[in-house]
């Protein structure tokens, strides 16, 4: 019997504002769409946290024996810089600044996105479609919306008529807005816009002569609106009605609101049963921003090359830190917090390693079945990873008591216990056992420091060839040197 039949999973639905029992449209199958990155820059830590939340959700569905089709797109068209209908395309702007072809920008940052997610042990989605690969589908959706009388063409651009749509539907239901308030709080159009109403959004934009990324359409050479791509790709691969749509909290309005409107205008039905939104990540209590310097890239956590953290941290430690907070809560990243997380992570891994040596007894003094269900209860409560981690540390306590002979387990209970703790740690949370013994660490550090001193002597003797050779060979081994005012340090 599949595991999901014995577990009742509840999901917080942003559409209703309540936790609801998860019932898939097709028994045993889950269709999940998550808004992916716009690939015009290095993926930032907040993105990683959002995608990590849905990676764990994906993993848990698989753990429950569901067959999952997980679709996460790549936005390679590049939407407008300020996410409205005016301004400069993000990818085109980056291409202009770096004097590259737009698709060079796309390729560079798509590779970076995949490299980072692989480093953090993400499972790949079932399908990873691109916006540029679905221009035809987007044009067909626009045609349908125009035919339904909810889209209109103006000077080569096409807009979604929000007021017309709202006559029979509720625009703003997901974000708790109503159209009357939105219209009352926006300025009148100044006569320079092609829109009928301030709240209307672009389905297709006519490209200005300098706009690089453009495609032919019945209305003009141009490019699709930001919101349209997700409607096209989610419905193509999951159908007009599917189980879960996820993304960051910042996408709830206008992006997801507009997606709902587009779907309902085309099909006459609500597209998604459960809307899920992950909350933001802050840094030292403040919003992360490159402009203020309060920012750190995921790669900089792994290398230690930053001015915020005291040292480098492994991907699993960073992952463990993020999963100690519920995906719907704000999480503050700081040096103290990740140092504490590293201690907890090491304690967990040491206990799991020690569990391999536990010996079975004729009977049990611990209720393993009850503990096992408490782990499931935590995840069944809207994927509550912090509560589940607390239960795992209850398991760590069991291991210590069993080692000391203060508690005992039968062979069957011991098998259940180790399978459960390993399943949740490695399969569901996606952690990896990255521990290296302290003695090995000491030997490595001593060896590298000896080579650093040899390199310094070579430089002092103006033997730069030897100095460069030591540096390059260490890099080839995955050890990077960093020269600073106070000497040379290294990171793995």
UniProtKB/TrEMBL annotation:
Positions with a binding annotation for ATP: 290
GO molecular function, one term: cysteine-tRNA ligase activity
GO cellular component, one term: cytosol
Keywords: Aminoacyl-tRNA synthetase, ATP-binding, Cytoplasm, Ligase, Metal-binding, Nucleotide-binding, Protein biosynthesis, Zinc
Source organism superkingdom: Bacteria
Gene3D superfamilies xrefs: Cysteine-tRNA ligase, C-terminal anti-codon recognition domain, HUPs
InterPro entries: Cys-tRNA-ligase, Cys-tRNA-synt_Ia_DALR, Cys-tRNA/MSH_ligase, CysS_C, Rossmann-like_a/b/a_fold, tRNA-synt_1_cat_dom, tRNAsynth_Ia_anticodon-bd
BP terms from Gene Ontology: cysteinyl-tRNA aminoacylation
Positions of Zn(2+) binding: 35, 230, 255, 259
Segments carrying motif 'KMSKS' region: 287-291
Cofactor(s) the record lists: Zn(2+)
Entry-linked SUPFAM superfamilies: Anticodon-binding domain of a subclass of class I aminoacyl-tRNA synthetases, Nucleotidylyl transferase
Domain Cysteinyl-tRNA synthetase class Ia DALR: 374-437
Subcellular location: Cytoplasm
Homology family: Belongs to the class-I aminoacyl-tRNA synthetase family.
Quaternary assembly: Monomer.
UniProt protein name: Cysteine--tRNA ligase
Source organism per UniProt: Flavobacterium gawalongense
Gene symbol of the encoding locus: cysS
């Amino acid at each position: 019997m599949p595991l999901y039949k014995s577990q009742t999973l509840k999901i917080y639905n942003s559409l209703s504002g309540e936790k609801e029992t998860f019932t898939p449209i097709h028994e045993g199958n889950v269709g999940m769409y998550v808004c992916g990155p716009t690939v015009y820059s290095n993926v930032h830590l907040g993105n990683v946290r959002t995608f990590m939340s849905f990676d764990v959700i994906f993993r848990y569905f698989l753990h429950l024996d569901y067959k999952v089709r997980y679709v996460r797109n790549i936005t390679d068209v590049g939407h407008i810089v300020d996410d409205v209908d005016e301004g400069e395309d993000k990818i085109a702007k980056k291409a202009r600044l770096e004097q590259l072809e737009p698709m060079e920008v796309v390729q560079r940052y798509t590779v970076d996105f995949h490299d980072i997610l692989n480093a953090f042990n993400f499972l790949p989605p079932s399908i990873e479609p691109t916006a540029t690969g679905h221009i035809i589908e987007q044009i067909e959706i626009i045609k349908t919306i125009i035919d339904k009388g909810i889209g209109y063409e103006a000077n080569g651009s096409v807009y979604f008529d929000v007021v017309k749509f709202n006559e029979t539907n509720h625009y703003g239901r997901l974000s708790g807005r109503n159209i009357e308030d939105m219209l009352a709080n926006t300025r009148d159009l100044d006569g320079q816009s092609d829109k009928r109403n301030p709240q209307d959004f672009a389905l297709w934009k006519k490209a200005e002569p300098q706009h690089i990324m453009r495609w032919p359409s019945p209305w003009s050479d141009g490019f699709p609106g930001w919101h349209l791509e997700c409607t096209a790709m989610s419905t193509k691969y999951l159908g007009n009605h599917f189980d879960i749509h996820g993304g960051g909290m910042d996408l709830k309005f206008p992006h997801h609101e507009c997606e709902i409107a587009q779907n309902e205008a085309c099909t006459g039905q609500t597209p998604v049963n459960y809307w899920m939104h992950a909350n933001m990540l802050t840094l030292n209590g403040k919003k992360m921003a490159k402009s203020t310097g309060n920012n750190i890239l995921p790669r900089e956590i792994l290398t230690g090359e930053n001015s915020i953290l005291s040292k480098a941290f492994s991907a699993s430690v960073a992952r463990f830190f993020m999963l100690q907070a519920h995906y719907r809560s704000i999480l503050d990243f700081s040096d103290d917090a990740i140092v504490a997380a590293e201690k907890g992570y090491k304690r967990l891994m040491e206990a799991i390693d020690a569990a391999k040596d536990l010996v079975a007894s004729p009977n049990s003094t611990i209720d393993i079945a009850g503990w096992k269900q408490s782990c499931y209860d935590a995840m069944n409560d809207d994927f509550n990873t912090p509560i589940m981690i607390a239960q795992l540390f209850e398991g760590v306590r069991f291991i210590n008591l069993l080692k000391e002979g203060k508690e005992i387990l039968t062979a069957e209970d011991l098998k259940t216990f180790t399978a459960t703790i390993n399943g949740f740690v490695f399969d569901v949370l996606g952690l990896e056992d990255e521990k290296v013994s302290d003695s090995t660490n000491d030997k490595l550090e001593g060896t590298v420091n000896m080579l650093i001193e040899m390199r310094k002597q070579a430089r002092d003797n103006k033997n730069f060839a030897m100095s460069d050779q030591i540096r390059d060979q260490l890099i080839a081994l995955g050890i990077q040197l960093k020269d600073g005012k106070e000497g040379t340090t290294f990171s793995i």
